[in-house]
Known about the structure:
The chain is an alpha+beta fold. The protein folds into two domains: 1-36; 40-112, no CATH class. The chain has three helices and four strands; from the N terminus they run αββββαα. The protein has helices at residues 2-35, 93-96, 103-112, and strands at residues 40-47, 53-59, 66-72, 77-83. The protein starts with a helix and ends with a helix.
Amino acid sequence: MPSTLNFLFWFLIVLALIPLALWMLKRSQLVVAAGVAPPARVVASAGLGPQQRLVTIEVGQGEARQWLVLGVTPHTITVLHSLPPQELPGGDGAASAGLPATFATLLKQARRKP
């Protein structure tokens, strides 16, 4: 009988530790994410074929920033060109950079049409 109680005791302890461990993991990721800048930002993307894309990303921070033009296929990623960062035309870079428009932008465009 004592072995059954011992098993039940440790089983309940493990069950209680699972939510605690998950909470600690969640908290530690928030601290790490708040102090680190993202390594890359997608500036523009264009599909070239069913499995090929041309992607422009911004890497680095401050004066070390640069844009990389990448050719992306299912098997490889190739750097095609490197250039200094530039301002996107039109203020809101999403539409001019080939990125999907937000719902608010699409709604404004639909309201303007007669």
